[in-house]
Specification:
By secondary structure, this protein is of the alpha/beta class. It has one domain: P-loop containing nucleotide triphosphate hydrolases (Rossmann fold), CATH 3.40.50.300. Helices cover 45% and strands 13% of the residues. A hairpin with an 8-residue loop joins strand 1 and strand 2. The longest helix has 27 residues. The N terminus and C terminus are likely disordered.
């Protein structure tokens, strides 16, 4: 899905042709930019798109993303790490479902990180995320990620004590220096990945408090969505402002050229999916991924293989004649 492509509207509208440009770049956080989330929109403000047209674009775009993913898998040189972070009910799960429909499951792994286990807490906080990194040719999608270690733990610093870090034996010692040091560790982690062929794209699905309330109420009132609701979601909602500040700190400190953050307006789920898909597609375009080409030896082996198979058919035919 290119940044600018012609699409025809749904049959429910008069047939018309529009040039629809999904400008994911305007949602990218520039390196060292100081982020104030109140200055970033949470909803789509435009008249060129609507849900029906947007869904049509996404369906076509997902197919094209799937085609490039197959080339990525065959090339076996780069890996892709896609990170999705958000407040509860922002649409991470549905974004994964809709955007990745065209992908081959063989080359894609989705990880959802929950509260760390006892075994995970016995290692440094990045350990379990190392284990979930994509192999060459693969895409890994992290639904929540290593950033939980500077988000929920920043809102609830007492959780840090569970890591049993030497010298950190009280909440009082978890100061601003601690968080800056941890941000640097994350930047070094991502830089190492990038230098070794992992493309990193990070998305913060930016939903408003009003929209979150609406979605929570839908989960309560709709029996098919009850399973999605947890009373803990309401408890965490009480820390809304604290989470917004934690996200601002993380986005400002860790959006880099090699591992950029995108602040995606997410009050309209269909538009959030479009922006994420467009950012991924535009990154693929930059990489110029193609199927691997065979060298002379490889082509000779192909010819030998074909000759062998053709001879096999001939032998079968001769056997029938002589019987």
């Amino acid at each position: 899905m290119s940044a600018s492509r012609r699409y025809v509207s749904s049959d429910n509208y008069e047939p018309m042709e529009k040039v629809l440009s999904i400008d994911a770049e305007k949602y990218r956080v520039k390196p060292k930019e100081s982020v104030k989330l109140s200055e970033w929109k949470t909803d789509y403000e435009g008249d060129r798109l609507n849900k029906q047209i947007g869904t049509s674009i996404l369906e076509e775009g997902s197919k094209q993303l799937g085609e490039v993913q197959e080339k990525l898998y065959a090339q076996d040189r780069y890996s892709i790490l896609i990170i999705l972070q958000a407040m509860d009910a922002a649409g991470k799960d549905s974004a994964i479902k809709h955007i990745m429909t065209g992908f081959n499951p063989i080359g894609v792994n989705v990880y959802s990180f929950k509260t760390p286990s006892t075994k995970e807490l016995d290692h440094h906080y990045l350990w379990r995320h190392y284990l979930a990194l994509p192999s060459r040719g693969e895409i890994a999608i992290h639904n929540r990620s290593h950033y939980e270690n500077v988000l929920i733990t920043r809102v609830h610093p007492e959780y840090i004590l569970n890591e049993r870090i030497p010298g950190i034996d009280s909440v009082d010692k978890i100061d601003e220096k601690f968080w800056k040091r941890r941000m640097k560790q994350i930047n070094h982690f991502e830089k190492t990945l990038a230098l070794n062929g992992t493309i990193i794209l990070k998305f913060f699905l930016h939903v408003s408090k009003k929209e979150q309330k609406k979605r929570f109420l839908e989960r309560i009132d709709d029996s098919t969505k009850n399973w999605k609701f947890s009373l803990n979601d309401i408890r965490e909602r009480d820390y809304w402002d604290d989470y917004q500040r934690a996200y601002e700190k993380a986005l400002s400190a860790t959006s880099t050229k090699h591992a950029p953050w995108f602040v995606v307006p997410s009050d309209n789920k269909w538009y959030a999916r479009l922006v994420v898909a467009a950012a991924i597609a535009q990154q693929f375009d930059k990489m110029h991924i193609e199927y691997p080409t065979l060298d002379t030896k490889g082509k000779e082996e192909l010819a030998q293989g074909k000759a062998h198979l053709m001879a096999e058919d001939g032998a079968s035919s001769d056997t029938v004649k002589g019987s």
